[in-house]
Amino acid sequence: MARSSECRPPSPDSTGGFLFSREDFFRHLEPSLRYLLASGQGFRLGETAVVSRKVHTLEPASPGVVSVALSADAGQTFYHRDKPGEVVHMDLFHELGEVDHRGVARAVQEAIDQARQFYGVDLGLTSLADYADVQTATGGGRVTGSLRYGQRASLRRAHTNHIHLTIKLAGQQAGLLVFLAAALERAASESGLQIRRVERVVNQVGGQGGASDLSDYQTDSDSFLKGSQAGGGLSAEFRDLKMALELAEEVGGVDELSDLLEEMSLEPAKRQKLATLARQDPSFPEMVSGLIRRGLLRRQEQNLELTEAGRRLKEFIELHRQELEQNLRRLLRKIPWRAGQGLKPQLRGERVRPAHYGYRRRTAPLGEGDWPGEIAVPETVLQAARTTLFRGGQALPSGEKTEWEPAAGVGRVGCFDEEAMARGPQWRSTAAGSADPAEIGPAIFITGRPQEENAGQARSRPAFPFLPLHLEQADLWVNHRFQQKAADICLLLDASASMAGPRLRAAKYLARHLVLSTRERVSVLTFQEKELRVVVPFSRSYARLEEGLRSIQPLGLTPLAVALIGSLEYLQSVRSRNPLLLLISDGMPTVPKWTVNPIQDALEAAGYLARGRLSFGCIGLQPNRSFLEDLVRRGNGTLYVVNELEKGLLVSIARQERERLRG
Q: How many CB atoms are located within 10 Å of the residue 138 CB?
């Protein structure tokens, strides 16, 4: 927005610090938002918020590009409403992390009150908070409700990179979007996360290519936005698919879910596997309660039996096992992650020099006095643009300084009128007597089309005029090529009785994720009673991994010394590429190897790992911290102490250690 007397910062009590006046708001901003909402397409509001009445998706392969499914109405898709065009969907993107959904709900209510005071008239804003829902990586629900919903793991995982807001909004209330976007940005910042710029919004005709693609966004809640379609606008087949995926993720896989329902369909006297599961798995009562709550099980006198819905789901799984496996693999692959996202290690030993293979490229600013080598052209141009537009300071022939900025009618949404939209962005200089950019000397000139455009539609739209960019040495970015390091991953899993249930399921989940989402080979070793077992030799085969994981039955004691020595011998006997041995355990060693003291033997065994220069990491529970610290010091490894062995934590830690080893 051009800086002028008309766009002065208002007083905080009237606008909360927004850089627009009431005159600008009602003359330009509010009408523009109303027009954009009525167009039925998605648009970017500010730098990080995407707004529409449709469903949005962010493709992992194209970060910064948000797709808007023009055929998927947000109200009908999320809430099964009868009429389209009633619900507005806003996503605000931030760096990976958790934003407190309760704080977001408070911020939304404050934004609505702020907008009501700014308008000076109600316009139905007073009760609007009752018709607003939020979802983040910590949960969600109705803004004015209990906020105890949205706790499903896949749903929370899908929102680790953005805040999701849906609200019933009429066209005359479109100005509220500015206040809501600012509130969401504030909530993300208060959570210590940086907001992420949306580079492009693509409006797609034809939807998302299948209802299952939207399964992450379906959840029970206390929302007042729900439509009259009691069963939802979704087919029975879709609902079965959605429920089967949820349950498969909870119980550890499609095969495990199929076995559980098969056991429940038998006569009580023949349920041998079920009796074993009930004894071993401490989460079994909770699992049964979840099936009853979903209407799949019922209590008949002293026994449990499948309901009609349960029998239908069992048949559905038998018929669609391959489709379910594919969808579950997709969920396993899409876990968002970046380097440094995991917990900080409590201890970290000396780094083991890894082997090398392949090359990687990394871009960085050119250092003073360095030879440029291979110039990174896109990064250099972007840096020059940032310098030109945001820092100014370009040298004129006269030696004066100038600053280039968007002229009136360009920049933020709402600061333009129809004439300005038709003309396209114009650029002007704040220096007197320098209105022609061509007079400022050598520069890069860039022209292009607006970023928000419909994919696959050839439309004649005004192109941006020439934008002069001064290129200086400080703007140069260069490509650095360096060797990539190998890092096969060996998971050493405690399979003693105390690991039964969610802990062992989390470890298996980690193994599946690593095989599906990395290029490294993965092996799985388990230890229990008095032995170490190679469950899965080094491999990238998902089928082989599944076969091995299904054979793990938790029981017995914890022979840690045997496990560490056996792992070292195994890794020395196979042709592994600089393996990372990652120990996951919830308890103390209880079986010795050389003496009668299992703890001392485990510490002695860890010393062999250090002498063998093996990369070693350990994930354990807080009550065993003192022993784990001694173990990792002896093994020259890395220690992560957690309160519980959860899937998300294990994935973040394992991938963090992998990246550290690879350099």
A: 19
Tokens of residue 270, six digits: 């023949």
* Unique residue bearing structure tokens 């290129």: 471
Rounded alpha-carbon distances, angstroms, from residue 518 to 228, 514, 533, 539: 44, 6, 24, 12
β-strand partners of 581:
490, 616
Q: Walk across the sheet containing 489-494 and list its strands.
A: 347-348, 638-642, 615-621, 580-584, 489-494, 522-528, 531-539
The stretch 29-53 carries a mean pLDDT of 90
pLDDT of residue 429: 37
CA distance readout (Å), 587 to 58, 493, 591, 624, 642: 40, 11, 12, 7, 12
C-alpha 520: how far from chain center: 22
| pLDDT average, residue stretch 231-248 | 70
Tell me the pLDDT band of 428, cut-offs 50, 70 and 90.
very low
Q: Distance from CA of residue 355 to its chain's centroid?
A: 31
**Cα-Cα-Cα-Cα dihedral sign, residues 229, 231, 232, 237:** negative
Instruction: Report how far residue 143's alpha carbon sits from residue 422's, in angstroms, rounded to the nearest whole number.
Output: 39
Handedness of CA 508, 555, 580, 642 (dihedral sign): positive
Contacts of 96 (CB under 8 A, 6+ apart): 160, 161, 336, 337, 338, 341
SS3 305: strand
| Burial (CB count <10 Å: 0-12, 13-18, 19+), residue 509 | buried
